[in-house]
Amino acid sequence: MRKAAWGLILILILVVALAGCSSGVSKDKYNKVKSDLDQANQKLVDNEQILITRDQELNTANATIADIQAQLNALKATEQTAMLLQQQLNTATMTIADLQALLDALEYPEQTIILLQQQLNACRSTICPLTPLREFTTVSELESWVSSHMEPAPTTAGQAFRTAVKIQKAAVQEGYIMSVTAEYDETIKQYRVRCQAFVENSLYHWSPGTPGVFVDYPGGQLLLP
Asked: Could you give the CA distance from residue 58 to residue 208 in angstroms, rounded to a whole number?
């Protein structure tokens, strides 16, 4: 555009020069041509400024587009993160549901105790041949071991049985013979869950989560059929 404008100006100058040389030019006509030339030159300057302004606006628009694109990319990344977190939440929710179902099942202690006792017996048949176990040597040894393996006091029969089995597992892992019993007391309509162990010929018991070891049958004799 600028080159075309300069070309027009040169043409006007040549026309004025040629016309003046051949026949002379009036002052009014000269002033008119000069005014047109000045206007064309000003128009050229104005157009140049417009081009600069438009170029600046274009750069600003490109920068805005780049910023918006970056924001869109960030939103896409956030959406992917949200989808991943939702998947993890769904998995955790399913796990919680499975655990709740297990806890609900444990609210029926009688069936649970029978099932756990069967599982415990099956585990014993596998563990006992592989690990040589022994009885506690003295009452003080038993009391010390029980004190060092205290668990939170249970509030249900199912919790008590699970706690007792946990204590028994610890005893077996440390090489001791220990048993778990669960009996239903018709008088008080409650389950009585105990951990038991022999010291020499006397049977001792304690309740899961409760301190203190008590003797059941001191110096008992073996009952033969």
From this structure: 79
CA 51 to chain centre: 54
- β-pair partners for 190: 185
- Is residue 194 within 8 Å of 181, Cβ to Cβ? yes
In the structure encoding, which two tokens stand for residue 116, read together?
A: 């756990």
Closest CA to 185 of 121, 110, 131: 110
pTM above 0.85, yes or no: no
- Which phi and psi angles does 10 have, rounded to 5°? -65, -40
Which residues, 6 or more positions from 41, have their beta carbon under 8 angstroms from its beta carbon? 5, 9
CA 78 vs. chain centroid, Å, equals: 15
Contacts of 36 (CB under 8 A, 6+ apart): 12
pLDDT digits (tens, 9 = 90+) for 47-58: 888 878 887 887
Write out pLDDT tens, residues 141-198. Answer: 999 999 999 999 999 989 999 999 999 999 999 999 999 999 998 998 889 999 999 9
